[in-house]
């Protein structure tokens, strides 16, 4: 009997925690009833997770979620023998649902990490902790992108990756493969094409769609020779700064935003480039929405000094600049350009 795949293990894990859709639940139940290993994992998880049902997870503070994720990552690097010892010790412990054993979140965090590793899944089991994990992974990816930019600059006489574009061109045409340099992502594609950044690092793992595309990329290499841009919008789940078209004194690098999670104004773009861009009119909801990449909880922001920070608001710096909009612009047609370097605008 072949070992249960990580994908199927995660499915069973999510099913035990009530995080699956109706279709996924049906798939999990079928797997449990037909596969002995799946049934054993399900039974073990149900027994081990039973005390967690009495815990109000929403009351757990952010700092503890961060500590849980760090503990998870550290333990995941431990030796197999140590893991087996930890799991065995946890299985010998007496567990009483609703009892004094789970009187603080510190014990819960430790048990949670052991449970996750026991089933071979590198995700925190509770939804809030899972999101913290994805935020952490996203930060690491943006750091990798910056490292790629830095290496590119070092190999090209201190010149950053750039493609000549004209102001007023349709920057929303991500994936357009014609000779015209339309999209705002072609210079970032150079980092992939020249092997400075892994393709998967441009896809935030915070959504199911993003994780699905990452699996596709890892399973089948992208044709980087015959492409002039990312193959499609789904292959870059971040928004990139559009440069000002006027020469002026630039801001210090530490104050300049380079990239961030997907701009909420432009989540749905035409896949057929013969179709026109449907103008976006900014309303109160669009002015306050955070990126979809992290369940609207906030967005990771990459600065030009290499720092990456997760922020719960869209406004950055002393000027409280909204990185997802242009000052004074209420209607977007997909061709806008900042009037100054102080007005950061990340698109698409």
Shape: globular
How many separate domains?
2
Please summarize the sheet with the most strands: 5 strands, antiparallel
Q: Calculate the terminal CA-CA distance, rounded to whole Å.
A: 47 Å
3D structure, described in words:
The protein is of the alpha+beta class and 348 residues long. It folds into two domains: 6-125, no CATH class; 133-347, no CATH class. The chain has ten helices and nine strands. The strands form three sheets. It has a five-stranded antiparallel β-sheet with strand order 5-4-2-1-9, with helices on one face. α1 (6-16) packs across α2 (22-34) and α4 (62-76) packs parallel to α6 (105-118). The N and C termini lie far apart (47 Å). Mean pLDDT is 78; it is low at 55-59, 94-105, 117-125 and 247-254.
Topology:
Blueprint: H1 6-16, H2 22-34, H3 36-49, H4 62-76, H5 80-92, H6 105-118, H7 127-155, H8 186-193, H9 208-219, E1 238-241, E2 257-261, E3 280-281, H10 284-288, E4 299-303, E5 308-311, E6 315-316, E7 321-322, E8 331-332, E9 346-347
Antiparallel strand pairs: 1-2, 1-9, 2-4, 3-8, 4-5, 6-7
Please provide a brief summary of the model:
The chain is an alpha+beta fold. The chain contains 10 helices and 9 strands. The protein folds into 2 domains: 120 residues, no CATH class; 215 residues, no CATH class.
What keyword list fits this structure?
about 350 residues, alpha+beta, 2 domains, five-stranded antiparallel β-sheet, two-stranded antiparallel sheet, 10 helices, 9 strands, about 40% helix
């Amino acid at each position: 009997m072949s070992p249960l795949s990580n994908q199927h293990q995660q499915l069973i894990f999510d099913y035990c925690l009530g995080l699956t859709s109706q279709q996924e639940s049906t798939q999990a139940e079928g797997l449990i009833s037909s596969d002995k290993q799946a049934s054993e994992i399900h039974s073990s998880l149900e027994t081990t997770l039973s005390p967690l049902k009495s815990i109000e997870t929403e009351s757990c503070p952010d700092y503890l979620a961060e500590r849980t994720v760090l503990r998870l990552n550290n333990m995941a690097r431990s030796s197999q023998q140590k893991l087996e010892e930890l799991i065995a010790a946890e299985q010998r412990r007496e567990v009483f649902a609703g009892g004094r054993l789970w009187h603080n979140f510190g014990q819960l965090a430790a048990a949670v990490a052991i449970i996750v590793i026991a089933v071979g899944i590198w995700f925190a089991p509770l939804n809030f902790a899972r999101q913290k994990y994805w935020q952490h992974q996203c930060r690491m990816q943006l750091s990798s992108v910056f490292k790629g930019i830095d290496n590119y600059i070092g190999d090209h006489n201190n010149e950053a990756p750039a493609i000549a574009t004209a102001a007023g061109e349709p920057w929303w045409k991500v994936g357009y493969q014609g000779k015209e340099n339309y999209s705002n992502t072609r210079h970032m594609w150079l980092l992939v094409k020249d092997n400075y950044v892994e393709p998967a690092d441009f896809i935030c793992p915070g959504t199911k769609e993003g994780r699905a595309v990452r699996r596709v990329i890892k399973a089948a290499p992208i044709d980087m020779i015959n492409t002039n841009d990312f193959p499609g919008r789904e292959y870059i789940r971040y928004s990139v700064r559009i440069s000002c078209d006027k020469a002026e004194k630039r801001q210090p690098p530490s104050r300049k935003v380079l990239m961030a999670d997907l701009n909420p104004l432009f989540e749905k773009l035409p896949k057929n480039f013969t179709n026109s861009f449907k103008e976006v009119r900014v309303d109160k909801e669009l002015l306050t929405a955070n990126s979809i990449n992290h369940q609207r909880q906030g967005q990771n922001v990459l600065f030009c000094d290499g720092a990456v920070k997760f922020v719960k608001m869209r406004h950055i710096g002393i000027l409280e600049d909204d990185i997802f909009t242009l000052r004074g612009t209420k209607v977007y047609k997909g061709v806008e350009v900042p009037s100054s370097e102080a007005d950061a605008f990340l698109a698409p």
